[in-house]
């Protein structure tokens, strides 16, 4: 119970834990949520202050009274980099194997020889520095490369992210000692050691404080006992970042799985609809031995700190892969929509189908814009927590919508034929909404990160004062309550009064297309309103806000959508391709209507049709070179 919390414990508590206790949550819930919040705070401290969440572009845009436009528009990539040659070789390997029909083995999995050829071409070392045998690719280049790779094979693109972002590469690169780096990184770079990350367990998915896999010291080793679930790329012989509980705290060990199952280590097989061309299975450990020297020891925090660190790279990669997959969907929608005739006309002449084409182009533009922006922030040194969550949610939701609302509907019954792009891959199109954090849960995490500082500054002191004064329900009209909380309320009042003097943000970008300039102005105005709205929500729900998940999710999504409008408009301004600018405009119009609740105008439908005509005419550079699948059940068009 909260009453038993000692003074020192209270000082150690994170904001979330303190707020939950003050709000009357059970000791267990407060402690568990606090543990996650603590890990998050420790990840923050690994970054220099100017790159932490409070100084991130989105946090500043919401709370600083003026949107820092320069932090929302990345510069273009340098025209070349030393990693380019390896990237081109990897694309050639996959393109060649794909054309020859030899990407997969007899079980339909990406074949071992493809993985090896990719290793020789430098694929697995893209994010590892040259000193340790890698390509040293800047993350922004890596992310664009993943989009291209996903147009050839999304599973192979996904494996690069599993290995390099959330697998063993990021943990060792970031948290390994020099000895651990020189022991593991060259093997990870060459692909001799392919890796995954084993965090999820049957009882611990969304709630990572429920981990049960235990490590116990035994001489030179840790002995691991427990079970992992849904682990990608973790078959016998692979290397995994293994999250365990050690001395009561989460810890990460780099574990080399034996080449064969044995008494101590078994694969838990199951049928999984998603990722069928890769491996995803459970892992069971029974006194499985990992050398003690394989324990990663972060300078701050524990295993959750390590797990959280790589997630943001994974989130951007997911959006980058979605940008590639959506290109494939659009490139395959166009020939079908031209071929299929109903009532004597091809369906690509119909307004409904044209709207889908335009919308899909808009989603591609949005994903490209978010990838360019977030990957640049990562290279600049930002943690990018808020920004990468936006990319993950947008990328996964856009891919889902593209597949089901746009692609499936346009392809009609053929969508469900064996051999059809939709039917064969539907689970892969949907699964990104769940892995690397389910979207709505992440939306809540976004909101909590965004309001944390404001809460700590103004609401935590009020909560503590209420507890001190033993006031159960605060009544702002009660003079007694107002007097008891005068210091805390004065401080909040000063912030509120300061808001009166914040002028409207009217920044402009010289030479911007009028449509994009309107979207920019819309976003700036919306940012001007968010602080009051968020603060009013916090005032209304006070310490019960944690239970108002639907309100937090709703507000979170509106802020995210506003960021997407801003980032897409700024990105489109720098693009040469008129169709891309048009696609960005369509997405921004869609998001603005979603935010304002307005109905689409006739002008919007005209814009969408015109954009679709341009794309149908071959004027969308983003589709250049994308392979197309044959039309199924083809017939003679009379
Ligand atoms: C194809 C695929 C690949 C994967 N690869 C990996 C991998 O390589 N390594 C790895 O460690 N994991 C992996 N995962 C696991 C993945 O990260 C988890 O599935 C995900 O984090 C969600 O956990 P869960 O499935 O246990 O959901 P659960 O914890 O069962 O939650 C189900 C749902 O309940 C709701 N919910 C839960 N808690 C709350 C709450 N407090 N408030 C409101 N709603 C709530 C949410 O909607 C949530 O999505 C993979 C999963 C899939 C499907």
Describe this structure in a few short sentences:
With 638 residues, the chain is of the alpha+beta class. Helix content is 56%, strand content 9%. A hairpin with a 2-residue loop joins strand 9 and strand 10 (345-346).
Describe this structure in words.
Strands 1, 2, 3, 4, 5, 6, 7 and 8 form an eight-stranded mixed sheet that branches. This protein has a two-stranded antiparallel ribbon with strand order 9-10. It has helices spanning 7-12, 15-22, 27-45, 57-63, 84-100, 112-121, 139-152, 154-166, 169-175, 178-190, 303-339, 351-380, 385-411, 421-430, 439-468, 479-484, 486-500, 514-541, 549-573, 578-596, 602-616, and strands at residues 195-198, 214-218, 221-232, 239-246, 249-256, 265-268, 280-291, 295-296, 341-342, 345-346. It has 21 helices and ten strands. The longest helix has 37 residues, at 303-339. The protein has 638 residues and is of the alpha+beta class. Mean pLDDT is 93; it is low at 1-5. It is globular, with a radius of gyration of 26 Å. Bound molecules: flavin-adenine dinucleotide. Flavin-adenine dinucleotide binds next to strand 1, strand 3 and helix 15.
